[in-house]
Amino acid sequence: MSSPVIGVLALQGDVREHLIALAAADAVARPVRRPEELAEVDGLIIPGGESTTMSKLAHLFGLMEPLRTRVHAGMPVYGTCAGMIMLADKILDPRSGQETIGGIDMIVRRNAFGRQNESFEAAVAVQGVEGAPVEGVFIRAPWVESVGASTEVLAEHEGHIVAVRQGNALATSFHPELTGDHRLHGLFVDMVRGKDAPASL
Q: Is 81 known to be catalytic?
């Protein structure tokens, strides 16, 4: 699979930036808004945005159950910021009616690093990404409160977990798509290709 087809969930959030980053990492990138589009991709990125809105729109577009089915069947998936929240098996402080796709055995705290005006950038050393630390853009970012035994911690910032992996599922608190550094997208593309993919979830 030299150029895997990777979708970006295009219900809400910074979709365009992920499509550009995936193309730079030698993937065929497509927006995904409908179940039939989800069925055509080899992997999926769930972007940043607003996790409560995203979960409501996933139900509205008939995507929530197909997403859960494919993720739990082992489709490679990468969630950034709100996407990390969507992949959490549990949210510490969910809003009323908020649901997740699940797939990573972790507990996530929403907006843990502060409000929009407290956004910041920081160098983050991510296990599995060669070279210098990646520049993490944290915008109303969550952090991971705790992980289960099957979840691997890939990075921390100021003592808080900000990147994890479980099987074919990857998640970061921050936005790598906003920096021009496509190494994390390259890592995910390799996961989709199967070069670095362990057993399914």
A: yes
Residue found under tokens 């949210």: 91
Which amino acid, 162? V
**Backbone phi and psi for residue 128, each to the nearest 5 degrees, phi listed first:** 95, -10
- The token duo for 88 is 């959490």
The answer to whether 2 touches 190, Cβ cutoff 8 Å, is no
Known catalytic residue at 156:
no
Q: What is the DSSP letter of 120?
A: E
Answer yes or no: is pLDDT of 200 > 60.
no
Q: Judge if pTM exceeds 0.90.
A: yes
Q: Is 175 a catalytic residue?
A: yes
125: left (phi over 0), alpha (psi -120 to 50) or beta: beta
Instruction: Indicate which residue of 18, 157, 175, 182 is catalytic.
Output: 175
What confidence tens digit (pLDDT) does each residue in 71-108 have? 999 999 999 999 999 999 999 887 777 899 999 999 99
Token pair recorded at residue 12? 């809400």
Catalytic residue among 157, 177, 182, 185: 177
**SS3 call for 118:** helix
